[in-house]
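Record Rhomboid family intramembrane serine protease, 305 aa.
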Amino acid sequence: MDQVPGSPQEPHNAQSGDGLPGCYRHPDRQTGIRCARCEKPICPDCMVSASVGFQCPDCVRGGSGTGHSAHAMAPRTIAGSTIAANPRLVTMILLGINVAIFAAVYFGDRLHSDLVARFDMIGLALDPALGGLVGVADGQWYRLITAVFLHQEIAHIAFNMLSLWWLGPPLEAALGRARYLTLYLLAGLGGSALSYLLAAQNQPSLGASGAIFGLLGATAVLLRRLNYDMKPVLILLGLNLVFTFLWPNIAWQAHVGGLVVGAAVAYGMVHAPRDRRTLVHIGTCVVALLAIIAVVWVRTLQLVG
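=>
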């Protein structure tokens, strides 16, 4: 949100030797925290806890007496989105979709359904059950995204959905629903694309792990942007990467691809300048999508060339 004309400005002489500005109300108190709405520097005495980060007293009061419109003063997240009444809605929908598809797979296996064979992530393979060559290289690009919502084992979906429920709501609140959903889908696609590029052409994979690692990377970027303690998320990220490479039968390519894409997209979303937020956000997502398409295109040429 743009700074409201007439509100206190950041003191020009508040910079310390280490570059930290002074609180806009107490210039002698250096701080690394900024208001989540107007981005003025605020000290601990001026912080007001909000659903996302902290706000300054002026933004909490809603600009009383400034004469600005309600739209101009509408609460905004750090990424510039309006603050939703339910910051878990998209996360709940994603969780519901994953569970519903898992139920279809779980009970379908008992009915000899071929849902997994039709929708898992596979580059190119000969599948007699489906009548010949199948996979992304055979034109089935939809597998890049359908595999992100596909699980076959209870432990697999339980771990992914618990992670989604833990990581999702804070990011949804910070980024806004549309940006959060876009990040989730791009991270899932990024994981599928790297699996397609590096995994054996007849090696299938499935699961939301790429998207979950994307949320983990985005969480690290967001905490760094808010100057929060990074140790917990870095420890969690490190442990997950260790398990990724040491645990058998894990598609590490999907984890790494999702992590990279999620962190990159989140960086563009939370570091975009306020006067060009929408342009930077769209540009970041478009570049990420084009990179994914390029990886898939190059790999396809290798497999069918």
